[in-house]
Amino acid sequence: MEVAGSRSEARGRRRIQLARKALELSADCADAYVVLAEESHAPDAARALYEQGVAAGERALGPDVFAQEAGRFWGIVGTRPYMRARLGLAQSLEDLDRRDEAIEHYRELIRLDQGDHQGVRYLLLTALLLAARDEEASTLIEQFGDEPTALWRYGRALAVFRREGDSRAARERLRTALRTNRHVPRFLTDEADWPGPEPTAYAPGSREEAVICDSDLGEAWRATPEAIRWLRAQAPARRSGKRRRR
After folding, report:
1. What confidence tens digit (pLDDT) does each residue in 59-111 have?
2. How far apart, in whole angstroms, are the C-alpha atoms of residue 235 and residue 186?
3. Which of 14, 221, 234, 242 is least surrounded by Cβ atoms within 10 Å, i.e. has the fewest?
4. 113 beta partners
5. Sign (positive or negative) of CA dihedral 43, 49, 52, 57
6. Side-chain half-sphere of 119: how many Cα atoms within 13 Å?
7. Are 233 and 209 in contact (CB under 8 A)?
8. Residue 113, SS3 per DSSP
């Protein structure tokens, strides 16, 4: 069961009212718990609500669905409230510095939906790098291959550098990342700032994509000894002088 209006026109108080009404009709409405968690301003309260959403989704689906449909969950519309609740739980655990627990939820989400329609692999890659679980990060990268996003390619370059240092393979991965988005190094090295809130959408190769990449991967890059120095040495120098107006 999904909460009517929860993902469209309903906002704020009305959204909460709809979620509570849905739970009056069915305690197994996972999406209602997701809505309440999203509207909560207390991290631990949000985590508890997401946990209730996961439990509600498990009850609604039943054990047979988990046994028979693992690997293709997202293709079954009825599983999606559960998947949203479990992803929210994983992210809330990260917010509470419970990263190892979050990683296990991310892994399970990918196991259930091998096509990864929620983009969990990006969150998992970042979490593994931050947890210094480099072998697992490399395994995840090989599982999904060479994706054309800046986040994936800069994450892959970092993973190889952490494993091998300034190797030929690391430089090749970084060159591929630079071709994908040339703006990322300036944000990772704190040479550029983004005015205003983090973008919610981006075009490939844009500054907006670079900002999101820095937001997700910056901590892992800056926590890796010599990684920022290496990035500065390998990235092409920014041209000086004024740009001509178009």
Report:
1. 999 999 999 999 999 999 999 999 999 999 999 999 999 999 999 999 999 99
2. 9
3. 242
4. 71, 72
5. negative
6. 8
7. no
8. strand
How far, in Å, are 95, 144, 242, 243 from residue 239 at the CA level? 39, 35, 9, 9
- Which tokens in the block code for residue 212? 């999101």
Spatial CA neighbour of 40 closest among 86, 92, 104, 118: 92
Residues found in the chain: 246
Report the SS3 class of residue 215.
Answer: helix
At 180-233, the pLDDT tens digits run: 999 999 999 999 999 989 999 999 999 999 999 999 999 999 999 999 999 999
Query: Token pair 């004024």 is at which residue?
Result: 242
Residue located via tokens 């998947």 = 83
In whole angstroms, give the CA distance from residue 84 to residue 95: 17
Give the max Cα distance, the chain: 65
Residues 213, 150 contacting (CB under 8 angstroms):
yes
DSSP class of residue 73 equals G
> In the structure encoding, which two tokens stand for residue 90, read together?
């994983």
**Any idea of the CA torsion for 180, 209, 80, 26, to the nearest 10 degrees?**
170
pLDDT above 70: residue 159:
yes
Please identify which residue in the block is written with the tokens 């995840």.
140
The token duo for 52 is: 């209730």
